[in-house]
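Re: that chain you flagged

S.,

Sorry for the slow reply, it's been a week of failed gels. I finally had a moment to sit down with the sequence you sent. For the record, here it is as I used it:
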Amino acid sequence: MNLNKNYSNLQDSYLFSEVSRKVREFKEKNPSLDVVSLGIGDVTLPLCPVVTQAMHDAVTEMGNADTFKGYGDYEGYDFLRNAVCGYYAGKGVTLGGDEVFIGDGAKSDIGNILDIFSSDNTVLIPDPVYPVYVDTNIMAGRSVAYMSGNAENGFLPLPDNSVKADIIYLCSPNNPTGAVYSKEQLKSWVDYALENKAVILFDSAYEAFVQDKELPTSIFQIDGAKKCAIEFCSLSKTAGFTGTRCGYTIVPNELVHDGQPLGRLWFRRQSTKFNGVSYVVQKGAEAVFTRDGLAQTMDSIKYYQENAAIIARALSKLGIWYTGGHNAPYIWLKCPDGMPSWEFFDLLLEKANVVGTPGSGFGANGEGFFRLTAFGNKENVIEAMRRLEEMRFGT
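Prediction finished late last night. Pasting the structure tokens below so you have them in one place:
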């Protein structure tokens, strides 16, 4: 018996588990202190009423022999896939139900989609980036190349024609930086992928936070993208499904490589390794896309956007450089006084009892930067910023 030796190439611990460990140990040593977390991006508002009502109704159905549901379709129930198609129609994107695959969240599908690709593909990943992109490819033994995101390019790297890649990861709005690609910038990536016969894996988990109508919320709003891109989205941040688990992956019928439709390969993978999302959860997810559901979830998003504005105002007052927060729930700031990321994490935790996420955990280009999230309770966000202002940072 041999182990997968690629795991030895991973960092010793997953970024967010390391943050949790340090916070837990601090609380154990200081049980009387009130620690405010703006670190891990978990939502705090409950599911909206139309969603919980739909799930209650579905539970009732499951308790009746005439309406009970057993195994569902591997790609998801028609009612939810059609609801997703209707949502995309509002973006000006036409999809067929057979191009939509319901899963338990973007994180799972972004990792699992790699099953349909050869391990000898070269993967191009932005730096800084959500750790799952990197770690899942290291686990599979793929060669990983990085594109540099930095303050000069607004943390939105563009194609370099001297670099050849087979699989390209893009996230917009970006986690961790909150930066959002324009249509022109995404078009340059689509053109690059088509020219190099590459596939873009596009993470749009935070698309609902984009308020600027000129900014794209789906890569399929870009001409040619259906021939080179797969899109992943989640209801975790859009509708508070972090603990409920539901998302979807779009694999266009036009996406074909070596005569193989990638949607067919993905269905084959899912039908072998995944039994689908529960009926109760899918009924709740369907309710998200109703008129009332969209309105109620938007109320929650506005709440988080107000939190982001509170953080942004405090950073501006302190003279701390930041990006994000306007069309995304993340604020990406430059650590004051040139501090390394983990040093700032420790100082903020010990002196202000506030938790954030060190930028270095998202890649080499994240060193010297720090991520705050807007998903907290508003009173806690206000308190955290008050404590931050008392520390009198500024560069």
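What I noticed first: The mean pLDDT is 95.

Talk soon,
D.
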